[in-house]
Amino acid sequence: MAQTPQDLKIAILGAGMGGLTCALALAKEGFKHIDVYENAHDLGFVGAGIQLAPNMARVLDRLGVWKPIEAEAVNITSTSVRVGASDSELAHVPLEYIHDTYGYPHMVGHRSSLAGHLYQGCLQHPDQIRFHFATTASDTTFGPKSSFTATPRDHPEQAYRVEADVLLACDGIKSQTRVAMLDLLGIKAGVKDTHQAAYRIMIHKDQIKDDPELLELMNGNRVTRWIGEKRHIIAYPVSNNTIYNLSTTQPDTHFAAATNATYTTRGDKSVMLGVFGDFCPMVQRMLNYVPEGEVCEWKLRVHEPLPTWVHETVALVGDACHPTLPHLAQGAAQAIEDGGVIGAVLSKLPDTTPASIHKALKVYEKVRKDRAYAIVELAAASGRALHLGEGAAKEERDRQFAALRQGRGPVPDKWADADVQKELYGVDATKIALEQFDELFASV
Fold this sequence. Notes:
By secondary structure, this protein is α+β, with helices and mostly antiparallel strands. It has helices spanning 17-28, 54-62, 66-71, 97-102, 111-123, 176-185, 212-218, 269-275, 281-288, 331-347, 354-386, 392-405, 418-425, 429-443, and strands at residues 9-13, 33-37, 49-52, 74-75, 78-83, 89-94, 107-110, 129-132, 135-141, 146-152, 160-164, 166-169, 191-204, 222-228, 231-238, 243-251, 264-266, 296-303, 310-311, 314-316. It has a domain at 5-48 and 112-190 and 306-387 and 417-443: FAD/NAD(P)-binding domain. The chain is globular and about 65 Å long. It starts with 8 loop residues before the first strand and ends with a helix. It comes from Aspergillus luchuensis (strain CBS 106.47).
């Protein structure tokens, strides 16, 4: 048995935002034996824009990686919600107060910057964190000593068994660890089809150098959301205002017959233009800048809530247990909160017995589970409000937007609502885990 918590052997499945944060948080707490198993040959650091909310920044700052991420990001000072068809403004919400209220600004950046600096942070601890790329994990067992089979993708004949004191499943919405855990516990809960899909689009500054209207958006500090029936587009500048990022949500028409394993497809530019064919000319111009052959569409899926995230010494993390729709821009932030809390609770272990490890992981679940699922539901509700068609509900939503222009009332776009922001940004999950650990540990 390990002599101290820091001597525990910890295996992390997946090197996404949750996995990297878990690894770095544990290394910062002095854990010496952290192995990260990642299916991809390398992290690649691709992707599109990502919102860097204060609750995310707070964790990253503690881990020493926020400053370089912040230096490459764009500080958002306002958001504008607009009618997709006419470009008329429904609401304008100043956001400068966020820094003064929550200690960090609301910034936006490139996903590769976030993942890259988390990874670089991990590489500063080579004696503590080891990466195993192009390696799949299967045949997980749950017990006082959890184990799985690690298979090098390029040399499957060299598969080997890994045993760990703690197993953290950061393996995404397709998590095989979750499937195995639910099967073992006899729990019926599956991936849910949202009937929504998304395009992720990036426009580079040199593409629009002769378009002053779009250049003004790229050079600004505003998040813009164009909304229409069952569809919307959210857009903002990233990478020091050199790229304009667009993220769409629209009805899923291309994945309906696909298997549950299919989450992305090569899109058709003409189809994409048709989806937003009734949106204003400026939106049409932006979409037209996307090169042929570079349209990719994602299917948006979530998962039914789980009764538990923990079994024995195994815990689910991030999208493995609480995937969410993007309408609150909290998916990565919530995985990063998970990682910060994991580091906190394992650092507070009173001993290294499997029973204590299990209880510490249950403290992680207590701190994170209700909050994460509340945010999942808030994101879904915000999407429903944004996508209303003609009728009384839309009229009430637009009345609320109109009242907002007079400085009163809630914001139907929950991402921009001050009360929702307080719930999202005003909670320090890591601090809660540290301050309430003894009480929660005794109660589980």
